[in-house]
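Reopening: Prepilin leader peptidase/N-methyltransferase still failing for me.
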Amino acid sequence: MTFLDALPFGMAVAFAAMIGLVLGSFIATLVLRWPAGRSVLGRSQCDGCGRPLTALDLVPLLSNFASRGRCRTCNAAIDPFHWRVELGSTLIGIVALALSPGTAGWLWALFGWLLLPLALLDARHFWLPDCLNLLLGIVGLLIAGPMLETSLMDRWVGAVVCGLTLAVIAEFYRRVRLKDAMGGGDPKLVAAIGAWLGWQALPLMLLLASFGGIVWALVAQRKGDQPLSQRPVPFGLFACTAAWAAVPLWPLIAQ
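Support: Ran it again with your exact input. Result attached.
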């Protein structure tokens, strides 16, 4: 990351924003197409009239703004999910490089970009694909050390111990209560997060994720008629959010 570290502060933030825009466009497409069995790499087209989209239609954020969120041919509304994900991905890059310039900031941004599709897929479909969990974990073990100055051993321990712990808890709950407490992808996600954070920061992440899940469940209970005990909670969404938030919080707590 020598080239990226050499960028002036403002240029680094702007470059991270541009990368976030491009990745956000791809992530939005992936989250919308993959669960529906559609090709992620296929030619983009209007969902209303089927017109293949040109380069002018695919500029992240700007195309949607210029067309006022509608297809130029059939005037069908474009799913706002696209620009929201693009904006969120852009903000990940901006915040990471603005608060943590240098290698640690770029790693924090990459962490956020890898977490984003997992969070969205779990929020919309209660699905945490094994391939994305594996990618997150492998990248964390290979390069995440400078982000929180964690050793490879700390990250291995975080991945193995925390992943196994959640898997054991889920299996124990299933045997005692005869129903699943969490999806099969949740322990794998936590293991992959441990490969980035190391074992030391994982209790903070799990605390933040659990708190977020509880608040979400209580709010959802007030808005619906489904009993709280029967309401599925997208724990992966809160685990991803908590993991990204734990990166700047953990050094403050550990001091």
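The two ends are 27 Å apart (CA to CA). If you still see a failure, please send the error message rather than a screenshot.
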